[in-house]
């Protein structure tokens, strides 16, 4: 995180273990500052530590139940204050909160407590929830979190275990709705103080889990690739950089064979690793391999099938039709079949040589239906008998499958009859 960015701190507060008067405390060691802070509510220690590092905490949202130890929030406030009247009022109100929270604090008292705490913590919000209302967390965050760009710090230490899980998944949904640029997770690992080597004077270690952000980035980049074929961000996460131009060339139907070969070699090396990156690299490798076709028409057909699988039907239709035209031109020895001006002459050739190009009447029908559908979809012209393929998904999918087979039968055939 950068200290220039405003952040939103989200905590959960539980009931804790009661030990005589007050809740059992723990000594949390923050490696970032070298401080040990004793508190029963880890969120208070985290708030003070972030403030010490000059982070601007714009909002602090705290979820809990009616029985949570809300009184422990007093520990988030610095010990000294120049306002003695406020200090005395705060201590008196804290005692009332402590007594009432045992049976369940009232909304009225909790609001008074929140208002008092805002004297020192302006962005604090105390949000009592029913822990079994799974939608309450995302609904509350939708109402509370500002729309301006923010980073989020999520404290998952306290409360029922399912609550931080739901909040974490909710933040993934809210990441774009609320312009959340980054999520960092903190955990006060109470049960790990003897597990982690080098823990400070037998204190409770504080885990800053940055890896969550990388996993979210992988999930988002995989989703982007699966829906649009854009692989640049996913490759960056695999430490393969400077591939923007390669993707652009593919989009423009160029032939960046050497660049793709290098990318695939890098992906193959990562695929051999014994890590989570291996299956991701292998999956991407399998998707990119067919694009190193020897001919433009083959690459266009492969990309047509790729986009068809991603439900990008118009893009798939255009690529299939153009790939078929170029493939027929190549097979029938058009020396300039790669030139745009040659496409019309290839189409004219097909029209005048249907017996040579097509083996059956059915193949010819598929070709013209594909052409009519493509023209109607791209230019908005009347469908000329292809209304079903433009308005019925099942019919379009059937035509696309037939079009791919037509390409394979004509362009990838064997024998002299079809110019192969």
Automatic annotation (TrEMBL):
Q: What is one GO biological process annotated to this record?
A: cell division
Classify the source by domain of life.
Bacteria
InterPro entries xrefs: CRISPR-assoc_prot_DxTHG_CS, CRISPR-assoc_prot_TM1812
**SUPFAM superfamilies given in the database record:** SSO1389-like (SSF160980)
**Keyword set, alphabetical order:** Cell cycle, Cell division
- The protein's name: Cell division protein DivIC
Species of origin: Caldicoprobacter faecalis
């Amino acid at each position: 995180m950068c200290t220039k960015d405003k952040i939103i701190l989200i905590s959960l507060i539980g009931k804790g273990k009661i030990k005589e008067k007050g809740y059992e405390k723990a000594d949390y060691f923050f490696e970032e500052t070298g401080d040990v802070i004793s508190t029963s509510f880890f969120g208070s220690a985290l708030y003070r530590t972030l403030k010490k590092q000059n982070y601007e905490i714009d909002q602090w949202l705290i979820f809990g139940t009616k029985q949570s130890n809300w009184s422990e929030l007093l520990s988030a406030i610095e010990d000294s204050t120049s306002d003695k009247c406020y200090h005395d009022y705060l201590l008196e109100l804290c005692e009332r909160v402590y007594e009432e929270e045992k049976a369940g604090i009232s909304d009225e008292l909790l609001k008074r407590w929140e208002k008092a705490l805002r004297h020192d913590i302006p962005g604090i919000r105390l949000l009592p929830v029913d822990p079994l209302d799974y939608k309450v967390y995302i609904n509350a965050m939708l109402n509370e979190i500002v729309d301006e760009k923010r980073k989020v710090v999520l404290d998952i230490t306290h409360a029922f275990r399912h609550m931080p899980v739901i909040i974490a998944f909710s933040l993934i949904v809210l990441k774009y709705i609320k312009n959340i640029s980054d999520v960092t997770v903190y955990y006060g690992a109470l049960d790990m103080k003897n597990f982690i080597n080098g823990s400070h004077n037998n204190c409770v270690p504080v885990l800053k889990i940055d890896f969550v952000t990388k996993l979210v980035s992988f999930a988002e980049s995989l989703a982007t690739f699966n829906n649009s074929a854009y692989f640049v961000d996913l490759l960056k996460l695999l430490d393969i950089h400077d591939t923007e131009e390669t993707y652009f060339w593919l989009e423009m139907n160029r032939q960046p064979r050497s660049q793709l070969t290098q990318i695939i070699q890098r992906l193959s090396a990562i695929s051999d690793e014994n890590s989570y990156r291996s299956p991701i690299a292998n999956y991407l490798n399998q998707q990119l391999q067919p694009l190193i076709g020897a001919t433009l028409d083959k690459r266009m057909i492969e990309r047509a099938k790729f986009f068809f699988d991603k439900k990008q039907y118009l893009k798939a239709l255009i690529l299939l039709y153009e790939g078929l035209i170029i493939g027929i031109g190549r097979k029938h020895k058009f020396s300039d079949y790669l030139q745009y001006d040659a496409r019309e002459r290839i189409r004219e050739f097909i029209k005048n040589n249907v017996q040579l190009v097509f083996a059956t009447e059915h193949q010819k029908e598929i070709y013209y239906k594909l052409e009519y559908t493509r023209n109607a979809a791209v230019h908005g012209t009347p469908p000329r008998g292809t209304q079903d393929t433009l308005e019925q998904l099942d019919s379009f999918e059937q035509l696309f499958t037939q079009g791919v087979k037509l390409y394979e039968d004509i362009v990838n055939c064997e024998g002299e009859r079809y110019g192969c």
